[in-house]
Amino acid sequence: MEKLALERLELAPENLRQEPDLEALEALKASIREVGLLKGLVGYEQGGRVFVVAGGHCLRAPKALAAEGHPVGEVPVRLVPREKALLLSLTENLARKDLDPLEEAEAVGRLLREGLSPEAVARELGRTPAWVRARGRVAEGLSPSWRGLLMDLGNGDRYGQVVLGRGTLEAPWPHERFPELVAEGEDEGPSCSVLEALTRQDLVVNDLAAVWAAALLWDLARGKKPAYLGVVYDLDRGTTRAIPWVGSTE
């Protein structure tokens, strides 16, 4: 473990959590003010900089405190070879059960793309080769262009919609393309009574939204661009209308 100046440290692109948990970050800042940074970071050195792969919040918190004028001393960092760094980051997050299934698959896929065999990854993570291969197959179908995807599901008593968006020209955010989706007025909230719930909406209206959402997500999970961005359905009219990509002539 080495003590390094905060200015030399930055978050590595291999770090599995690029977006901070703001509540956890504030709690860690308060702890550092009281007792200092108790946990060391893990990173690799490249070009005179040290890239942190494990302990992202333990890097963000001191940097935020320094920006606020709070004195922050040198930070303890364990330096490892770059090829070992992602393994350590993944192991730490798996131990804390801190990754969702897609993040887990992305991390395993990155290790396999680095040239490690499923058997080697399995040994390092304490998992089976079959577990590693399964997540590697999921990673092969993930499309990086759909990171940050938003899906809106909503319904009334006899109608509903499923809309995808990612904030681009061909796939705007759902609320930008359909401002009427933004609910106004008081939300009645869920009902604990099945009978009361059925008086508010048809029995199958939610099921239809779930089926269309699953169909779109299945395409995305396989790395396939969906033929449409969503659907609008109306049980009274007996219609289902596809929502095309912006600019599509279909």
> Which parts are unreliable, with pLDDT below 50 for 5 consecutive residues or more?
191-195
Provide the residue-averaged pLDDT.
Answer: 80
Count of discrete alpha- or pi-helical segments spanning 4 or more residues:
9
Give the H and E element order.
EEHEEHEHHHHEEHHHEE
Q: Do you know the CATH architecture of the largest domain?
A: Orthogonal Bundle
Distance between the termini: 60 Å
- CATH H-tier superfamily of the largest domain: KorB DNA-binding domain
| Amount of beta strand | 15-25%
**Could you name the CATH topology of the largest domain?**
Arc Repressor Mutant, subunit A
Q: Radius of gyration over alpha carbons?
A: 23 Å
| Total number of domains | 2
CATH class membership of the largest domain: Mainly Alpha
Spatial order of strands in the largest sheet: 1-5-3-4-2
What's the overall geometry? globular
Helix content: 40-55%
Structural class: alpha+beta
Instruction: Find the count of extended strands (DSSP E, 2+ residues).
Output: 9
Task: Please summarize the sheet with the most strands.
Answer: 5 strands, mixed
